[in-house]
């Protein structure tokens, strides 16, 4: 790991508008199990966060919190499940960071502003930029110089279109006036 490039990634729990604020005034919440939708596959970096938080919520509420992984479609599948659920607070979402950006890039089956309310920030994790040891760059300045000397010859991998790693690398390309292509 020669070069480090930190980009904050926020994981936020969101729920549908009308989250149980009115229901809480009428009865204790929750009175039945709560679905905690994670728009990523099981075993990934986000899954343990959801399981730890879900367990703590279950202990606090005295009610089951079921972690339900719904990966695919650049998190759109999981987000859409929550957007279409009843607005009663019993379906919550571990929202992806890209939710703030993706509506400007793709046609979505939901409105990320109108269909969800933020509840809490759960975690922040850095992203790291690393290069293969054979690449003659030991810091970011050297990587930018190499990319300028070899435009379009350096490639990178990301989690997919419009994800935080992809957008972070695009930002690096723009601010460094370089061209690094996705592999």
Description:
- The protein is an alpha/beta fold and 183 residues long.
- It folds into two domains: 9-125, 3-Layer(aba) Sandwich (D-Maltodextrin-Binding Protein, domain 2), CATH 3.40.190.150; 140-182, no CATH class.
- It has six helices and seven strands.
- It has helices at residues 21-26, 47-61, 76-84, 99-102, 140-149, 164-175; strands at 9-16, 34-38, 65-69, 91-95, 116-125, 154-156, 180-182.
- The strands form two sheets. Strands 3-2-4-1-5 form a five-stranded mixed β-sheet, with helices on both faces. A two-stranded parallel ribbon has the order 6-7.
- Helix 6 links the parallel strand 6 (154-156) and strand 7.
- The longest helix has 15 residues, at 47-61.
- The protein is elongated, with a radius of gyration of 20 Å.
- The two termini are 19 Å apart.
Q: Can you list the strand order of the major beta sheet? A: 3-2-4-1-5
Largest sheet descriptor? 5 strands, mixed
The string of secondary-structure elements, in order, is: EHEHEHEHEHEHE
User: And the CATH topology of the largest domain?
Assistant: D-Maltodextrin-Binding Protein, domain 2
- How many domains? The number is 2
Q: Helices and strands: which structural class?
A: alpha/beta
Terminal CA distance reads 19 Å
Strand tally, please?
A: 7
Radius of gyration of CA atoms, rounded to a whole number: 20 Å
Would you identify the CATH H-level superfamily of the largest domain? Bordetella uptake gene, domain 1
Spans with pLDDT under 50 lasting ≥5 residues? 1-12, 15-24
* CATH class membership of the largest domain: Alpha Beta
Q: Tell me what portion of residues adopts beta-strand conformation.
A: 15-25%
How does CATH name the architecture of the largest domain? 3-Layer(aba) Sandwich
Give the overall form: elongated
Helix count from the secondary structure assignment: 6
Helix content: 25-40%
Overall mean pLDDT score? Answer: 83
